Structures are given as structure tokens and as C-alpha cells.
Amino acid sequence: MKILSFPGAEAPANEAATAGPLLARLPVAPKALARVRWAVAARPQPAIAPVAAVTWLAEVQHHGQMIGAVACDGPGDPLATPGFLFETLALIRRQYPGLPLEVATLGLGGSDHARQLAALGVRRITLLVDAVTQDEAAKVYAWVRPGTKTMPLAEATALLVAEQARAAMALSQAGMTVHIQTTICPGINDGQVEEIARKMASLGAATMTLLPAHAGSDEDAAVLARVTPLVAQHLPVLAARPTVEPGGMAAPFSGGPVLPKPTPTQPNVAVVSIGGREVDLHLGHAIKALIYGPREDGLISLLAIRELPEPGSGQARWEAAASILHDCFALLAASAGESPKKILASHGISMLITEGETDATVDLLYGGGKKGKGGRNQRP
Predict the structure, then answer these.
(1) What confidence tens digit (pLDDT) does each residue in 333-374 have?
(2) Are the beta carbons of 92 and 101 closer than 8 angstroms?
(3) In this structure, which topology does domain 2-240 adopt according to CATH?
(4) Quick one: the chain helix, strand, coil %, rounded to 5?
(5) Structural domain boundaries of the chain?
(6) CATH number of 268-365
(7) C-beta of residue 23 within 8 angstroms of C-beta of residue 170
(8) Pairwise CA distance, residues 108 & 105, whole Å
(9) How many CB atoms lie within 10 A of CB 271?
(10) Residue 168, CB half-sphere, CA atoms under 13 Å: how many?
(11) Which tens digit of pLDDT belongs to each residue from 26-61?
């Protein structure tokens, strides 16, 4: 099976990739639950909205490509915003009743949602398990945020380890294939990989993939070669298959963009943020919007800070907000309700749900790091 969008699907180790149906990977998760210590800074990728995901799938099929399965994945964790995930799964299931569905997740909340995932026809869950003890997890993760409040790392990693164990058992008992994906970082978690395989197998996991923390590293490759036979004593080891990149979030064959673009009448982007550095605020809680756009010299900068209507006036609030943001083609927020999304969309303002650095996310909407894009932190 070819892979469409971004890596992570697996096949038996040493099995050559063959042509066939596509595995479409949909980035439907706007909120991250954790960050590993070896993560490197990357260009942020806004999550795709449920309706846009189904539209994208239809676009792919319209161009004669067969989709063999759909995997709901990053850029965050699908179970961090289960409403987005379930809406996407339900839309896909309604339009493509027989299409196999998959989900990749850390597993926080997995046991609570196991029955609903199974009812929606999810056949396979990839659990991202990089440690199975609290001490080891504290070495792996820079932070873990299971809820709305930041927890001490020791407490959060203990919760993560326990939740992953419960998720593996509940998901397998609900009839789904549980696949474990472990990223190995020498000196951090390479000594616990066999224990991960042993424990996950005892909880119902069926297969496992091992990935290097640093692609192309000779040290990582040597560690993988050493631990793979140990893991294989407990679970079949599957190798990651080649990836076909469609070029960002655009439909790969027509080039039709999923992300909105600036227009002559709506050249700007609005952002709601607690401190300005990150997109980290629910739209319903926002009383101000940061307005980014091109200056007279073409540089993308912070142009203004606009007051938004106070909460409490229902739909009238969002009609007023649309008027205030009349020159914006997109509004970035960490979360938002359906009413503002629909009202803003009717005024040509696309609601994008994402979490990430404000400057980098705005830059992505203007072409992503092109020469001359800068100065976005300058005050008007």
C-alpha cells in the first residue's frame, strides 16, 4: 500500500513496497498532548477540518486513485480533541461505508473512547509508546499536558504510562488491532524497548514498529539493529514503508489548496492568543485579535490589535466579529465552536484550529518561510 500525506504506515519488515491502494493520512488533530525531548523545531501544520478532510478524499478519488484506508493522525493527538476526530470519522464512514479507518494516538483517553472508536469502524489503533515506566517517561518527554492545566512532569508521565496500558487493553478488547510505534533515542529509552514490547504484548498489542529518533544517524541505526531481535521475541516487528508526499495540505493531483489564501480584499490573518507568541486561546474566550498582514514594503508583520465583542450576545457577537475582521481571510485559534465557524465562513473568513508558534503559523499561510517574510514581531 502506498502512503499518501505523511509517514507512519507499516508493512512486515523486509517486505518490498508495492503499488496498490493508497493509505491516506489526515492531519485532523490540532492539539498536542506531549513533546519528546529529541523533537526538533518544524514548520507548523494546521489541522485539517473534518469537512475539508472528506473533500480532500473525494478529490483524490476523483483523479482515479484508490484509497485502501484512512489514518487520522497529527499534527497533534486525535484524542486531545475527540469531537474533531469523531466528526471526521463519522463523515468518512457516512460517505465511504467500507473504508478501513485507523487512528494514531498517545492513548490518553483511549480506554474511555474505545467503544465509540470501534462503533465508528476503526480497525487499527497505533499507540505511540516510548516508555512504560514513569522514570523512563520523564527522560523521554519534555512535557505532557493531559488536560487544560499543566501538571508536574512526574505526575503527568505517571498518568501517561498508566493510561497507555489501559488503552492498549481496552482497545484490543473492543476488537481493534493495536499496533505499537516506538521511537528509539540512544541514551534515553533504548534500554527499555524490549520491556515496552513485552508489556504491550501482554496487554493485547499485535505488532510493533521501531523508528530512529534521528533519521540517518549511524548510532541510531546500530541501536535499531541491536534491539529489533529482542523486540521480535514478543511482537512481530513491522518496518515503516515509503512515503508519498502530496506537497503540504493540497490535494496531490489537482493542486487545489485546503489552506486558505490571501485575496486583494482580505489580505490579512487574525490570531487569538494569550500572550502573542503562540496560538493558544479558545475563540470564545478572546476579547482581542492580533492582525497580521503585508506592510507597504511587502513584509508580513503585526499590523494592529483589534478589540473583539464581549461574550454573551450569541450569533450577533460573531456577526460583529466578522465585521471587525472584514479584511482577514483566516482566523487562527486553539479551539472554536461551530456557530462562529459558520458565521465567519459566510463572510469569507476561514477558521483554522491549530496550536503552534504564532509567527511560524502565520508565515505558513503566506507561503512558508519564503525570502523576505519577516519582521512579524514588530509592533504597529
Answers:
(1) 888 888 898 899 889 898 887 777 788 888 878 875 433 333
(2) yes
(3) TIM Barrel (3.20.20)
(4) 35, 25, 40
(5) 2-240, 268-365
(6) 3.30.420.130
(7) no
(8) 8
(9) 26
(10) 25
(11) 888 888 899 999 887 655 566 777 877 777 777 777
